Amino acid sequence: xxxxxxxxxxxxxxxxxxxxxxxxxxxxxxxxxxxxxxxxxxxxxxxxxxxxxxxxxxxxxxxxxxxxxxxxxxxxxxxxxxxxxxxxxxxxxxxxxxxxxxxxxxxxxxxxxxxxxxxxxxxxxxxxxxxxxxxxxxxxxxxxxxxxxxxxxx
Length: 154
Prior knowledge:
The chain is mostly helical. The chain has helices spanning 3-36, 39-76, 84-116, 120-150. It has one domain (3-150). The chain is elongated and about 55 Å long.
């Protein structure tokens, strides 16, 4: 396996874990949890889900730019020589990172406090705001994956 192939495989796996995890949470886990669980149990479930999933997201947050820059320098020698879609991918990564950091640093602690206080109404409101940010991030992530797959010539 060449170094470029290894970087590419790690890059794809990191993106798959992050975007695929959001897709699973949004499309499958959330509707099932709403259907089957009362708010106290559902909110505690989400705290556990976020705690476990965000470990993997942090790994992706680190791996994506490291592997991306490695591939960029192996394939194009510099950012200036890279196709425009690579620049767009970097910008979309930064948007995804900012949205993730918003949830991690601002909203998740708020959810944790609401659950600890057993304020299920406030917890539900925070979880609703997190869901919106994750939905936006999922949309951006799906657009980024589509862009990478198409590799447009612009």
